[in-house]
Design goal:
Layout (H helix, E strand, L loop, with lengths): L2 H13 L6 H13 L5 H27 L3 H20 L1 H19 L6 H15 L4 H13 L3 H32 L1 H5 L1 H21 L10 H10 L11 E2 L8 E3 L13 E7 L4 H17 L4 E7 L9 H10 L6 E3 L4 H5 L7 E5 L4 E7 L4 H12 L22 E2 L19 E4 L10 E9 L4 E3 L4 E17 L6 E7 L2 E2 L12 E4 L3 E20 L5 E8 L1
Parallel strand pairs: 3-4, 4-5
Antiparallel strand pairs: 1-7, 2-5, 3-6, 6-7, 8-17, 9-10, 10-11, 10-12, 11-17, 12-16, 12-17, 13-14, 13-15, 13-16
């Protein structure tokens, strides 16, 4: 387990007390905590943590399996919150809800009406409707969960986040309850108070639905103007620049002597976190290498921080081969322990951090795209004229394409026979007659390890039902001899739709790398079948694109 990431998730949960999505939840907790026994607030928080943890861990799998639009989930959540507000506005509905929860409490607690167990159901409902609203902080936590090497690590991170979010709620529920019990006015006007809470919930839902940034409604103008003045000319700049973290525990420097942030002061620096088998990183490299060629002699220093996702990416010879393949001539730091990744608190491949001459990070961008904005900011820091109007950027992916699919135990998804996996054990698998969309299956003898699936005997095969224009697969070959892999699309040897790494229906795996298998005219559904002609092939992850 990673105590740092667990602690970070806990702090992120605490930070949600200032999130707009907390607005509908707090009055709901406070109003329901007023009724029932002393233990009800604890039951509400317990139910909230439990449902939030379970739902958050399962949400990505559910969405991927059913293909549900995330906006639908968010809007459904807002509808449920709105209905809660309506219930609180209605005396009749409020009494029915109180009666239902009291009955549940009596079943579990006997004589204590509305006690601990009565609060669990309310807390569970709060957790379920609140999850999709949590916004960027929850998104960051989910990325942390995805990066973990086991389900247990992911559970502890999301549980720590839920606990951090729940503690302020419990404090508010307990102090609010004590206050209401002491004030006769509040006790005698309980229904009125409940209706006020209902209005607050409905108003909060309206604010969230309208997209208003509640956190910035009361921002002090002088502060905003000062920040804007500091970042004049930059686009999408960070509100508050911060000192760039130092490189740490770099195992090797390629194309350069070792660098430090202190030695780079006076230069404009672009840090590019990448790894060579990541298709998203690969698609950004033409832009990054172009910036190096255009602006190196004008004061720009680009440093690639190679932070591996898979074990074979730690081999220096593999990284050196990638530098030649992609014509990377700027310095590259090999961050095999991810120490520099952690120093930057980075969570993405690729990630760009733009640093000014003072050594401050002033702009960041995660993922693909925003190339024109990044180049504009580079030019601005270098004191160059603005660029001509940039052309619209073509999307690198389709919104309805198959999601990234990992083939190792640690992050296995959409494997049709997932329940039959025994880690590292050689197993004979059979392809089913029907393979649902976005699912994959194995045929023949394979061993599924932490990060990959390995073909144990010749002619072992893999099938994937996908929806995309292009299909990529990370494959490795530890045998020392090339392995030919036959590629079929919809039951026939692939031809017109073959990716650039496929020749005459065969992809030859001689290096540990990312291979392009399919390149169709447009985004289409297809059944891909790969058959390893020799034993030893390792397959890691499918990615997709336009």
């Amino acid at each position: 387990m990673n105590p740092f990431e667990i602690g970070l998730a806990f702090l992120e949960g605490l930070a949600l007390i200032i999130s707009p999505c907390i607005l509908p939840v707090l009055p709901l907790i406070l109003s329901t905590a007023v009724d029932g026994g002393k233990m009800r607030p604890f039951g509400i928080i317990f139910g909230f943590i439990t449902s939030f943890t379970v739902f958050a861990l399962a949400s990505r799998q559910i969405v991927a399996l059913l293909g549900i639009d995330l906006d639908i989930i968010k809007n459904t959540s807002l509808v449920l919150l709105f209905l809660f507000g309506v219930v609180l506005l209605s005396t009749t509905l409020s009494n029915k809800l109180s009666g239902a929860t009291a009955g549940l409490a009596n079943i579990n607690t006997g004589t204590q009406k509305g006690g601990f167990f009565g609060g669990i159901g309310i807390g569970a409902l709060i957790g379920l409707v609140w999850v999709p609203c949590a916004g960027p902080i929850l998104a960051a936590v989910l990325v942390q969960v995805i990066r973990q090497q086991s389900d247990l690590n992911g559970f502890f991170i999301i549980f720590a986040f839920a606990l951090g979010a729940a503690i302020p709620m419990l404090i508010i529920a307990l102090t609010g309850r004590t206050l209401m019990n002491k004030l006769t006015f509040l006790n005698t006007h309980a229904y009125t108070i409940r209706k006020v809470f209902g209005v607050l919930i409905i108003a909060s839902v309206g604010l969230i639905y309208s997209g208003v940034d509640v956190q910035n409604l009361f921002a002090a103008k002088p502060v905003v103007e000062k920040v804007q003045l500091q970042q004049k000319g930059l686009r999408n700049a960070l509100p508050t620049p911060y000192a760039a973290p130092e490189f740490e525990d770099i195992s090797a420097w390629l194309n350069s002597n070792p660098r430090t942030m202190e030695s780079l002061k006076g230069k404009v620096v672009l840090i590019d976190f990448w790894t060579y088998s990541c298709i998203n990183c690969v698609r950004t490299l033409p832009y990054v290498t172009n910036w190096d060629q255009k602006y190196r002699d004008k004061g720009l220093v680009i440093i690639g921080v190679h932070s591996p996702e898979f074990e074979f990416e730690k081999k220096q010879s593999n990284v050196e081969a990638a530098l030649k393949k992609f014509n990377i001539q700027y310095p590259v730091a090999i961050d095999n322990t991810l120490s520099t990744w952690v120093n930057f608190k980075n969570q993405y491949w690729p990630a760009h951090y733009l640093i000014n001459q003072k050594g401050e990070v002033v702009y960041t961008h995660f993922g693909e795209g925003e190339y024109a904005t990044t180049e504009h900011n580079i030019r601005t820091l270098l004191g160059l004229d603005e660029m001509a109007q940039a052309q619209p950027e073509k999307a690198a992916y389709s919104t309805n394409q198959t999601p990234e699919t990992y083939l190792g135990v640690s992050r296995v998804e959409n494997f049709l026979n997932k329940d039959t996996i025994v880690k590292d054990k050689e197993t004979i698998f059979s392809v089913p007659k029907f393979l649902p969309l976005n699912h994959w299956a194995l045929n023949g003898k394979w061993a599924i390890t932490e990060d990959y699936s390995k073909a144990i005997v010749p002619n072992s095969s893999l099938q994937l039902n996908f929806n995309a224009k292009k299909v990529f697969l990370v494959m490795a070959n530890p045998t020392g001899a090339p392995i030919d892999v036959a590629v079929k699309l919809n039951g026939e040897p692939i031809s017109a739709a073959a990716g650039k790494d496929v020749k005459n229906g065969i992809v030859t795996v001689s290096a540990d790398a990312l291979y392009e298998l399919v390149d169709q005219a447009s985004t289409q559904n297809g059944l891909l079948e790969l058959t390893a002609k020799s034993a030893g092939l390792e397959v890691y992850a499918f990615t997709f694109g336009e």
